[in-house]
C-alpha cells in the first residue's frame, strides 16, 4: 500500500494516476461489452473524465446469467462446506480491508464524496459487512418441526439460485456489501449491477473476490445504464431474484418486470422522507448536531436522510439557528479530495440541477429560505450545493413530501404530540425517523407510533450489520443487514418422512 496522502493536491495526484477498471467482470474475467461500446464517467468534483466504462446491454447480462447459472448448478459454491465458505469470505473481507485506500479513491471518483469518509466509513463498512456474513456461514441451522414420533419433518433452507443485485450510486460499496454478503453466504450466485454513475469501486471487488477464492461465475459485476442493463437483468427468465435499492419509481418497475418475466422474488429498499420530531424538552445542542449531520453528510444523498424536522413551535427558531451553526462550524465544504472537507460534490450535474430545482420550488411554494440555497465552488467545474434550510414549511408542500436527495432541510412546526406524529407519518415513505425528548414515556410512545423501518431516539443514523434495515409503505419491503437478510435469499423446503 502506498503512503496515504495528507493534502488535497497529493490526493488529486493519486486520483489522476489511478486508471479505474471499467470493464465488466463476468465468469472470473474482466471483459469489454460485447458491443464494444463504452461511455465516459464524468467526475462530479471537477467535470473531468474519470475513466471509461463498459456500456453493457442485454447480451452482456445474458452472458453473466449463463455463468452464474452454471456455477450454481454444478455446486462449486453452493455445495462447499460452511466452514469453507466462511474461510473464503473472510479472505474476501480481509482483501477489501488491505486495499482500503485504493478502493476509497475509486469510491470518491465514483460519487464525489469526501475522501475522508470513503477512507474511514464506506470501505471499512463494506469490509465489516462481508466479514459479518462470513462469520455467519457456519452458524445457520435448518429446523425440525414438532410432530409425532412417527413423523420426521425437516424444514430446509436452500439458496434461490441466481440473484440480481441492483445498487444505487450514493453508497455503492456499502449497499453492494449488504446484498453480496447475505446472498453469497446463502449459497447463491450473484450478478451485481452498479449504477452507471458509480461503477469503479464495485468493479474492483471482482478481482478481490477471485483472489479470495470465490469461484468463477459466482460473483459477476455488469456496469451500464438502467434501461440497457438493469432492465434486462430484472426481466431475465433465468434470474431467480432481484434485490434492488433505489428510487420508489424504479422499484415499482422492478415489481412489474418480475410479473412480466418469471415471477422472480423482489426485495426493495426505496426512497425516504424521514422525519425528526424535536419535542420542546429536547437537548437542542445534541439534536441540532445530529440533524445537521443527518442531512448534510454525503451531501444529503442518503435514502434515510433526516430531511424533515418536525419541531415544536416553542423551540423551532432556536433549533434552526443551532443547525445552521453546526453546518458552518463542523461541516466545511470543499473539494472531494480535500482531507479537511466534510461536504463535497453532488454525484453528477443532473442531480445538482434536480436539487436546485427543488430549492426554487420551495421558495415558490412560500417556504422561507433560512440558509444556503445556492450552487457554490463553480470555479472548480464540479457540482456543489451549499447546506440549505427551509423554515415555515407546510406538511403538504412538495419539499416536505418528495425525496429531494440533496442537502435541503425542511422545518415544519407543530404544537401537539399527535400533530407531530401525524406530520411524520404523512408521506408515502416510511424508511427512517427519530424523536428527541428527555421524557422516555414520550420517546417510547412516539417511536412506536412512527411508521418507519428504523426509528432513533435521541440520536440518528446509527448503523451496524447486526441490525435489519429497510422500510415501510412505499419505502419498500425486505430487509438488508442482520441474519434476517439471509432468509430472503433462500427458499424454505419441507421434507416430511413418516415412519411405520
Provide keyphrases for this structure.
Aldehyde Dehydrogenase, Chain A, domain 2, single chain, alpha/beta, 500 residues, 20% strand, 2 domains, globular
Task: Write a structural description.
There is one protein chain. This protein is an alpha/beta fold and 500 residues long. It is 40% helix and 20% strand. It contains 16 helices and 22 strands. Helix 3 packs across helix 7. The protein starts with 7 loop residues before the first helix and ends with a strand. The model has no long low-confidence stretch (mean pLDDT 97).
Q: What is the chains' assembly state? A: single chain
Count of distinct strands: 22
Strand order of the largest sheet: 14-17-18-13-12-19-20
Low-confidence stretches: none
- Write the CATH fold name of the largest domain: Aldehyde Dehydrogenase, Chain A, domain 1
CATH class of the largest domain: Alpha Beta
Task: Report the principal-axis shape.
Answer: globular
Question: How large a portion of the residues is in β-strands, by DSSP E?
Answer: 15-25%
Total domain modules? 2
**How many angstroms separate the termini?**
65 Å
What is the CATH architecture term of the largest domain? Answer: 3-Layer(aba) Sandwich
Q: Taking Cα atoms only, what radius of gyration do you get, to the nearest Å?
A: 23 Å
The number of helical elements comes to: 16
Helicity, in percent? 25-40%
The CATH superfamily name of the largest domain is: Aldehyde Dehydrogenase, Chain A, domain 1
Q: The biggest beta sheet, please?
A: 7 strands, mixed
Structural category: alpha/beta
Average per-residue pLDDT, rounded, comes to 97
